[in-house]
């Protein structure tokens, strides 16, 4: 299981810990990830995704999973999230056609 957000693609970053005497030691900055169940309104299903806290706040701000994932770029999404995006787009197109 990788340490990467499934919706935003945020992963570990590398930097330095700097001591008082200015000695720099390499360290990793890991993203704050949570496994959450996110509901899709158009599909009527819940999906378990491993996303960052920032992505969780963004989901609330954008108005839910459907609104966020339709506008998200495929390069940022995991394969599971891309599959959800295709399902949501197909369902929304079906609803608009009828």
From TrEMBL:
One of its GO terms (molecular function) is structural constituent of ribosome. SUPFAM superfamilies: L28p-like (SSF143800). InterPro entries: Ribosomal_bL28, Ribosomal_bL28/bL31-like_sf, Ribosomal_bL28_bact-type, Ribosomal_bL28_sf. Pfam families: Ribosomal_L28. Keywords: Ribonucleoprotein, Ribosomal protein. The keyword RNA-binding does not apply. It comes from the Bacteria. One of its GO terms (biological process) is translation. GO terms for cellular component: cytosolic large ribosomal subunit. The keyword rRNA-binding does not apply. PANTHER family: 39S RIBOSOMAL PROTEIN L28, MITOCHONDRIAL, LARGE RIBOSOMAL SUBUNIT PROTEIN BL28M. Belongs to the bacterial ribosomal protein bL28 family. NCBIfam families: L28. This is Large ribosomal subunit protein bL28. The lineage of its organism: Bacteria, Pseudomonadati, Pseudomonadota, Alphaproteobacteria, Caulobacterales.
